[in-house]
Write a structure and sequence with these properties.
The protein is mainly alpha-helical. It has one domain. The chain contains three helices and no strands. The chain starts with 8 loop residues before the first helix and ends in a 7-residue tail after the last helix. It holds the Pfam family DUF1414.
């Protein structure tokens, strides 16, 4: 069952475009981009989520990430 977001597709796309633009502008390699984005996620969880919920949220985030990754060979 698809999840419904409280945020519009437009809000999500606008933010995604801005973040991607910064990484592209700086010609950031994929590994560095992933490191920075991972650190951002960690920081958000550690500073914005109650400590009792952090591990559960991180687990859910990791599962959603794995589910969204394509298995095709193109890159």
């Amino acid at each position: 069952m698809p999840q419904t977001s409280r945020y519009s597709d437009e809000q999500v796309e606008e933010l995604l475009t801005e973040l991607a633009s910064v990484l592209e502008k700086r010609q950031t390699p994929t590994d560095l981009s992933l490191m920075v984005l991972g650190n951002m996620v960690t920081n958000l969880i550690n500073t914005s989520v109650a400590s009792a919920q952090r591990h559960s949220l991180a687990r859910s985030f990791a599962q959603a990430l794995q589910a969204s990754v394509s298995e095709d060979q193109a890159h």
